[in-house]
Amino acid sequence: MIIDALHRFFFFLSTTEGILLKRIIELIFFTLITYMIVSEFMRTHEKELRYLSIAFAALAFQKFLLSAVFAYEIFGNVSLVVLKPFLPVLEQVLESLAILFLSNAFIFAIFKKIANKSQMFFFRIELIIWAIISIAGEIGWRFYINANPGAEFFDFKGYSVFLIFNIFFLLVPIIYWLSYRKKDIKYRGNIILAFSVYLITWLIRLVNLMFYGGDSPRLLVAEQPFPILSALLFTQIIYLKLVDKATLKEKLRISEQKYETEKRLSKMKDEFVSVVSHELKTPLTSMKLYISLLKDGKFGQTSNEQIKALEVMDEESNRLNFLIDDILNLSRLESGKARLRLENINLYELVQQNNMHYRVAEDKGLKVITLVPKKFYVNADPDKFRQVFINLLSNAIKYTIKGSITISAKKSEKYWELSIKDTGMGIEKKNIAKLFDKFYQVGDYMTRTQSGSGLGLAIVKKIVELHRGKIKVESKIGKGSTFTVILPYQIKV
To answer: Which of 192-206, 254-268, 451-465 has the highest mean pLDDT?
Structure first.
């Protein structure tokens, strides 16, 4: 019963009244799509949207023209024989133009990804072919109808040319989208389905023309639902694409707001760090001065217990001073204010200059092995890279109870490396990724025995990145750690 109802409905669509209804529905769809696309194109001026605007505008105009013609024929109760010399060709010309632009618009989404600059050249050739077929079709149809006044347009050989043209340009995007295997373009399946459904209409017309002379009632009925279905599918694709654009714009707007907020907060943080650090430095300098004077007995004789207390105060004030310096250094590096002063430096001489740290290692009974060649010249900022080396070396000494520390360097084709290897306690694999976080220190804060600010490695990472390099860590619990700094020979500042 439902099948019979569908048959009757599709048969109705093949009548003059049914064709008018179908054309009005298609006109509404294509007008709506055209409005959405043109509105978006006026804001973005994207080439893909320009093609789609022309394609759906041509289809909307075609449906409007045909709706007006069929309405005049039905409600005016007049024959429109006077329009026969140009109306069939105009209908085909508009639809062929729409298919041409529609095909290229959806292929353009692929061409944008693979950056194929030849698309415009081929598109111009296609437009020239379309123009030649259109002009030749109109001229040929007029001659044909003058010679055969009662003929229908499907009797004209030019009709088969339009059929082949349309089928070809509906097949092209399907082939492109089927062959394009990358997964970075959305709605691939929707686009292939929409073009395939649209293609069925023209394939049915071709079969009808080839085997039945274009006059098979069954095939005329069979083709009726496909134009409407394809119109619905294209409407869905365009709607989803425009919704995606709107969503992306909203996300971009929110991201821009977040960026501006982060920028303001970062500026406030830099100002706060600068002011607070300065305010801490001033009284700290005075405290260190008076501690030094007290230790030297400038204010009277001091007992041994008082001297020990003053030494603790001096040590703690030094630690606080180092912490303030680290905070200021890290703030400058994070704000982008730090600049490199690149020089050709002898790495061997640089690592030999840190006598104080070597004495600390010697006092702990650690052996420091230097395997850096004596004439190992590299391009780096000497002051900043010295800071990198001192931080890594002092960490190795701090976390090594016994054994040795090995300093080595080597060169590769584009990079050079400095490695500091220790035989210390090692680091758990899960903690390696956190090493360069600010204020992070290995071990629980209640149980760890080594003091520090937790900023040293964060500063190291920032300086290495400023040199366009990277740092890697290899470690095993109980067997020690190796920190390797990798820098390029040519640093682009």
So the answer is: 192-206
Q: Identity (one letter) of the amino acid at 63?
A: K
CA-closest candidate to residue 387, choices 490, 280, 316, 467: 467
Long-range contacts of 339-343 (CB under 8 A, 24+ apart): 339/493, 340/381, 340/384, 340/466, 340/467, 340/491, 340/493, 341/381, 341/382, 341/383, 342/379, 342/380, 342/381, 342/491, 342/493, 343/379, 343/380, 343/381, 343/382
Work out the burial of residue 492: count CB atoms within 10 Å of its CB; fewer than 13 is exposed, 13-18 middle, 19 or more buried: exposed
* Amino acid (one-letter) located at 339: R
- Consecutive H or E run containing 403: none
Q: List the chain domain ranges.
A: 2-256, 343-488
Fill in the amino acid letter for 464. V
The one-letter code for the residue type at 427 is I
CATH of domain 2-256: 1.20.1070
**Nearest C-alpha neighbor of 457 from the set 302, 297, 333:** 333
pLDDT in tens, 414-450: 889 999 999 988 888 888 878 877 666 655 443 344 4
- Give the model confidence (pLDDT) of 218-251 as tens digits: 888 788 788 888 888 888 888 777 777 777 777 7
- A 10 A CB-CB count for 409 gives 19
Q: Around Cβ 199, how many Cβ atoms within 10 Å? A: 20
Residue 320, number of CB atoms within 10 A of its CB: 16
What is the CATH topology of the domain spanning 343-488? Heat Shock Protein 90 (3.30.565)
